[in-house]
Amino acid sequence: MNNSFIPDPFRLLPWRVLGPLTLLVIFGATVLYSAGGGKMWPWAGMHLVHYVVFLGLAIVVSYVPRDLFKRAAYPAYGALVVLLVLVEAVGRIGGGSQRWLNLGFMTLQPSEMMKPVIVLVLAQFYDNLPTQMIRSWRALLPALMLLAVPAGLVIIQPDLGTALAICFGAVVVVFLAGVPMWWFVGGGLGAAIAAPLAFFFVLKEYQRKRVTVFVNPEADMLGAGYHITQSKIAIGSGGFFGKGFGNGSQSHLEYLPEAHTDFVFATMAEEWGMLGGLFVLFVFFIVLFRWGMGVARRAPDRFSAILAAGMTATVFFYVAINMMMVMGLAPVVGIPLPFLSHGGSSMMTNMVCIGTIMAVDRWGRRSGRFSR
Amino acid sequence: MFRLGRKNRRITSAALRDSFDRRAVLIGGLQGTIGVLLAARLGYIAVGENAHYRVMAESNRVNLSLIPPRRGWILDRTGAPIAANRADFRVDLIPEKLVDRDKTVDALGQILSLTAVDIQDIKDRLEEAHGSQPVEAAAHLDWDKFAAVSVRQPDLPGVVPQRGFSRYYPTGPCVGHLVGYVGAANAKDYAKERNPLLITPGFKIGKDGLEKRFDAELRGVPGARRSEVTASGKIVRDLETRDDIPGDPIHLTIHGGLQDYAARRLGLESGTVTVMDIHTGDILALCSMPSFDPNSFSDGIGRVEWKMLSEDDHVPLRNKVLKGLYPPGSTVKPTVALSFLEAGLDPGESVNCNGGLQVGNRVFHCWQHHGHGKVDMMKGIYQSCDVYFYHFAQRMGMDVIAAMMHRMGWGRPYDLPLGSQSFGTVPDPAWKQRKYHKDWAIYDTVNATIGQGYMQVNPLQQAVMASRIASGKIITPRLMANTAEPGFQPLGVKQEHLDLIRQGMWEMVNGRGTGARARLDLPVQIAGKSGTAQVVGLNFGNGKGGAWKHRDHGHFICFGPFDNPRFACQVLVEHGGGSGAAMPIAKDVMTYLFDEQKAWDALLPMEAGWGGTPQQRMAAKYQTFAAQYGAAAPRVADGDAAVAKVEAADPAATAPLPVQSDAASPAPEPVSGGPAAAPVAGAAADAPAKPGRRP
Known about the structure:
Chain A is mainly alpha-helical. Chain A is built from 14 helices and 2 strands; from the N terminus they run ααααββαααααααααα. The mean pLDDT of chain A is 84.
């Protein structure tokens, strides 16, 4: 495919991935168009604008040289930790929890950016770690500390969903870095013991309720179980082919809460049915399973391999938790569905992840071309 | 995977890469597994459980609501509505859906510009209501206010603006006691009849009177509306509507115009008017005034309204025509005389009245202290001479009199769909023995013979008596026009006896009697009999002036036209100071039957002086009370129950009569000097000082 009319930087993008991804985003925009009551603005239009803007950002990221990634890791991490503390401080002074910093021209959500950055900083950490030390406690403890600070700051915001996403990305990186397997087994056992304790002593009342409701949503259909029940009704009533574009009663009559953000998958499934759901899953399969993990496996070095896999895992975590949540397989946590849910912060984080994987892809090919 | 490094103590970067690859496969596998799991779950929900969730989505989307049926009309004999429905914009509150009661009600008050009194009343009603039982916040709204509430409905959960029909009584208080009123079902009603219709906003059930008695017929069948609603309850569009089936109308024998006229003619008095059709027994008018306005009761009884009604010494909440018991006074005399005739007394036999008669060791006075001179039966009736009756009652005996009273329809209730009736007492020796375990005394007979003592009747019974004297048949009153016209049996008295009694009653009004004030200014003549019943002992006053409560009751019964009786009428004016208060009313009501215009011409100037129609007077009084007491008026515990309590609390109906061994003093009758004499205005001139107990 050598078409000289199309400039190289554009032609050389990994269109086998960006193509399906763009289709998914456009599909997302149609869902948001319907959820917005047949209006382009603000949701559907902004969704596309976000995508185009952050696709540009991803392309820029994809051209960032490997060395710059490595050198920027710790400063970026440090800066975000400072911002997280600042958010907390401003929130405290302002009275009430806060996740954003208002910079005047835009609002900044440091916890969002922490998700790719924790992966980056841990990849950098394990790349620097002498090979011999991978089985010692020195391979784990600093990593845990790097994780604990931002995760702790995000949890007290409180933003459990984002904290879990940060943790998941980090844990995948630690796992792939090659620390002994039994630590994970032990950690898993520890989590199994800690979970009930955390349930009773750490979680806030509303969070606890989400968990109990998850176990039995129908017990409180009008109260805490309302979200999940309505979401299942939306998906279930859609059937295989859906009710048709613009015909989703659950979303249009406002039974479905957060129809354009966290529960956008239910909005989609009501109108497009299981077919639409399979399309969404298929795109994620291509983008994450085949391309993301593929890039990681073909990566030229340890740093970039871990980086690509960690970024893939971060996006995957969003997809998995969100879809499990809307289908009643996980408690309700405020996590949007990548590329479908309306929201600039989430789109930016995910496109940064994609851009990073693209960068790793580029590094893997001296020519600067992308694989596949 | 974690075996790496065991073989070689030295971990190479190649080994790490190897480990990464294997672990990446594991992570990828995990992702794939979750992906498959999600697809399977999607299939299970969307395809496997599709039917289940489709139903749930549909039940979310579609809201089935009942449309309250239009209530059947209550029609008068001409087919004119006594109770109808009118299209209405209304706002109801559903207690269980209210988030912040006070805030919502206050906000609503602001939108609808309700007064503090109205807001307090709504809060009172909300406190009593619970669950899904709707509470009416406002009715009869104009479109602008209704639209204002509709627009703000999403911010006011539990507020239901609705357009529908509400009960409307064109003549308001004039038919209050006759038809009763409607209201929202309360918790007790709902417990009795678990019908979702009862908790449908805007639905009313009959609470009293005919509305209650014929609730089943009037109610109708609710319609249903399927509409698409949002999660917050806002209706997006109507899907399909099944119309309601209006309730059946009920037809009364009442003449709406006459009912209205008679009620208004009572004016500021507390009293009753009953008019019957002698041919059919039809009740043409059944008025008890003052009354409540059933229009304003339908949205619940407010504090100020309750205070206004319950503090009124004219007891507007009591249906006096059926539940009030009164000594009938001299109106019994025609019947007593008839009993004498039937028992063989010669009507020409006379007694000399010199103002009183000694019975045992007491003197029983005639109302005419100067005496009537020689009195035969005819004069006894038209001059209402007490001594005549004192004298011959002792000879004829109480059993004769009591039997005739019973034949006149006294001492028992009638078969009328009007709830409970107080039917009073026709005393006789057996009754006194049963009730008081005392022997009948001669003065009991003497008292009974002038309608005092133990004798008590309700006003309807007096009308029935008049109709029976007029027709000579056993007329029973009828209120429902669609029931078969009864064939009345003859009373079983001699025609010549009846003629004589009627002649006496004619003379009373048109001749030498005391009833000239009832004489019609028409070529139609009526016959009648006045009665003045003493309320309290003479130690309280003479029954004419003084405290309103102590004044005598005024009675008048009549029928007309005299030569071919068609209508029988009864008028009672409570504490009217004597029969003089009742006669002009009877005259105007009878006039209405023959010349409506003439009757209105007589009433309207008077009514202007009284402050307008009953509705206008009540509205003015309400304003005064609202300004004076505002929301500070004591709350009504349970409106319907409270009304029922007042109705039942007639002391005359429930308390046992005191044993009266005293000589009842006959109250004076208005005197007219002769056939041509002008009616004597007022009774003060001929009010002699009445003796009390004689030492």
